[in-house]
Design a protein that fits this description.
Radius of gyration: 23 Å
Number of strands: 12
Structural class: alpha/beta
Largest sheet: 6 strands, parallel
Bound molecules: beta-D-galactofuranose
Distance between the termini: 35 Å
Length: 321
Amino acid sequence: MKTNRRTMMATMLAASFAGAMPLSAFAEKKIVLGFSQIGAESEWRTANTNSIKDSAAKEGIDLKFSDAQQKQENQIKALRSFIAQKVDVIAFAPVVESGWDTVLKEIKAANIPVILTDRAVDSKDTSLYVTFMGSDFTEEGRKAGRWMLEKAKTMKGDINVVELQGTVGSAPAIDRKKGFEEIIKAEPRIKIIRSQTGDFTRAKGKEVMEAFLKAEGKKINVLYAHNDDMAIGAIQAIEEAGLKPGKDITIISVDGVKGAFEAMMAGKLNVTVECNPLLGPQLMSAVKDLMAGKTLPRRIVTNEGIFPMDVAAKEFPSRKY
Ligand code: GZL
């Protein structure tokens, strides 16, 4: 792709010097980026979308944006439409890890570079994408597990955990589970007694938490939710069951969105592990570097923290998403 674009630009430049084409036509060629977004399932996703759109506008990049409503088939359709539109670069957040090789091979055959953002794919052929930029979800699960181990020191007897998993087959759901379990196995009193997907949404998180409460009732000591939206939905279910979220049931979550800080300030959520959605600036910088012929690192990791309830009020004013 780079060669084609370079050849075209050289030809246009020569034509403009020969007076056959105004220089302005040559100067106006914008980078065209095709972006396939998962959906609008959570506060995190909305913040991620806003960051990408705002950064593309700021950098003068022509963004072709598609929302897949959390369906892989819609993402694949969008990726194929970007090939047909002959965009300069394709970026996307894969809703699940598997099932991308065929369309990624089509994109490679069209000589269009691919940047993965937010979530990874399980393709063995790493030549199918230039770089993956996003969080280390396993480490996010470990951070949640380490907080749980510390909390366990203040709790007596068995510690029964119910888990609200993210979208089935998605990298964050797989890795946040793996990281949490890796750490909590150091304390045999901590047991995950129920685990089910809430698909990263508030509505599903509430529905599944209602089922957990019906099945396990007062046996539940802790909720580990793979994102804040499911935790916020679960908080509603816990309150409707006459229990106190954050007290009767300790709640650990991930993302660090505004809703989580508000829940912590209300004493209903105990801790949230940050997962930064503001990938727009990094993505646009990578796109421009790519088009300038620079080599990108294979992996670009976002740096993140953890926010327990007692720092929420102090941190909230400076939160950007
Ligand atoms: C994580 C991202 C997840 C968030 C959810 O990087 O893929 O998807 O944790 C979002 O809130 O829906």
